[in-house]
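input
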Amino acid sequence: MVQVRKQLPDPASGAAVDLDEWVEHLAISLDDQDGGQLLEACRLLQQLAAGEGEDPGDWATESDCFAAGLDTALILAELHVGASCLVAGVLYRAVREKRITLEEVGARFGEEVEELLQGVLRMAAIGELRLHQEHPVLGQAHAQKDNIRKMLIALVDDVRVALIKLAERTCAIRAVKNDEERRELVAREVFDVYAPLAHRLGIGHLKWELEDLSFRYIYTDAYRKIARLLDGKRLERDQFIVEVKELLSRVLGGAGLEFEIEGRAKHIYSIWRKMQRKGIGFSQVYDIRAVRILVPEVKDCYATLGLVHGLWRNIPNEFDDYIANPKENGYRSLHTAVIGPEGKILEVQIRTHQMHEEAELGVCAHWRYKGSDGGDGMASTYEEKIAWLRQVLDWHEETGDADEVAEQFSFNVAQDRVYVFTPDGDVVNLAHGATPLDFAYHVHTEVGHRCRGAKVNGSIVPLTYELKTGERVEILTSNEGQPKRDWLQPGLGYLRTSRARAKVQHWFRSQAREENIAAGRQLLEREFRRLALTSVDYQRITRKVSAKSVEDMFALVGSGELASSQVLNAAQGLVERRPEPELKLARPGATRYRSEVQVHGVGNLLNHMAGCCKPLPGDAITGFITQGRGVSIHRTDCARLVKLQEASPERVIEVEWGGAPTDNYEVDVAIEAYDRHGLLRDITGLFANAHINVLSINTQTNKKSHTATMRLRVEVPNLASLSKLLERINRLHNVISANRCTAE
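output
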């Protein structure tokens, strides 16, 4: 990538660029027509660069439009894109700076180039996804959501749009080296959005550069420390790699294998991330010394692995088979760490030439191998990457939740996945914590709608069962089934993935408005009866939840677009302000909680509520320090938090709601049930899991009717948490009813 400046004289120096020679030496072959079109675009850019343009604010102030356009095209040529994509890359910055209009480009270079540039301009809206800002724009305005939606549509329709933007951002972050004013701004955008996007699309040789440069500008001290440690051992390491390559060449050659061996540079950000993730020092990073072996076929990979392990002793738990179990972005390779010559740790990567192309070029490798014998596998990987983009689009289209979009582009999305089998033996990749119902919707929307039960490894399990890797899942369906509104109640645990939840919401939105109104009314009236709230003022609650009318509020609840917990929280604010409130404070005179979160030890930090567990005031919470988004606040019992704690315990911190004690409300709960062994234990266990304090409990048993009546006095933080708890108690075996009752 550094060769760009050697081929291209700096225009600021006055040196002329021979554009004919420049086009001829691109890393891609073009026919006369395509080469002529690209040359025309370069000459036009040279003319446009001499004029005045607007500053978009996301490039170095001293950077040049002409040099940037040619640099972008050089990167795109390495990705083996076509002429239209190259022309769009050359002209993109000129269009962004309004030196030329889209219509003028379309008239001169064709509709395809114009549409590509339109997509890249839409994608520039993602620059507003600056999640490190104190007041993020994302999700706060409908126009912003629309920009993100359009960007995703552009990505799905033509992945070349993403490639142009990645190439342009690569040039941009190279150019801000000496621009202190804009350096961190560009680096943060690249770190939060474009490096993860390059990773998702599998474009390794851009991903590494984007990660290292953005890390260098954001975490300067950490970058310099690791760079010094690497430089201090560079000569010794280089000599070591030379000796390893010679020894491997003799062994592999003696076995009759075809191979290429190269030393592999460990990227600085990758070293730092491993040190942080594992809590280890620089000396414990095993792949500082590393080689990569390229062979023709998959069988040669495993043969080479056997020879390597025969030559040196491998280190337990440091072997990864990404050929049999590819990474989520399609990456395939064998990784092993061995105790090499002189007792020094050595990492060895083994892959085929095709796997290497895919690791470096990602989706672009699909075009190179299209039509070859390996094309089917490459096409499959390509489709998987595009499927991810479509999946993000589906979530946003069906839920309108722009925060979900932001989380998908973040480095901090938990990478834990669950791999389960269909009855036919196919592997399905699901998010950690997924249920059989999530599995059903992943297989097909109609399978999810008609799901009425599930078997795991041949045994019936509840639809709330948490799937584990390696399990075989079979969905039981009915002929005319339809979703249930209970599936959308987060406290019941039926759906854990946004995609499945969006499909259920979409189904209910498509039903007749009258049905949704009736269902929403029934649901809310049941909740208010259960919570013993009388004289509910629906008009005032409607205004608090920003619905146009009471019927609109019922329809939104019935369709799943408005959670009943939101309505209950609105109702709570009203009943608290009555002359004789229906909710009695557990500690009279307690100060109301503040809405912000205080972080122990460091004062106020930028924070956000985690999308996986969505903690509410009163929930027990724990903080996790993210990279670029401040502190992510999770419920303490969040499954994702448990995994994050295991991976990075040093980034877990104590947090609490506000600076003052949280209000708790003293309420009485009446439970009626058919008596059985362990009933009281199950009920009190639910209170304990919900972190709700039980002040008193009274139980009476009627031996004639074999029923038990319980009266509990408890402290709850809000009505929504009480409603969720009562719903869970009602679903226990033998429970007839569980309701709030007025205190005597």
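quick obs: The CA atoms of residues 408 and 657 lie 27 Å apart.
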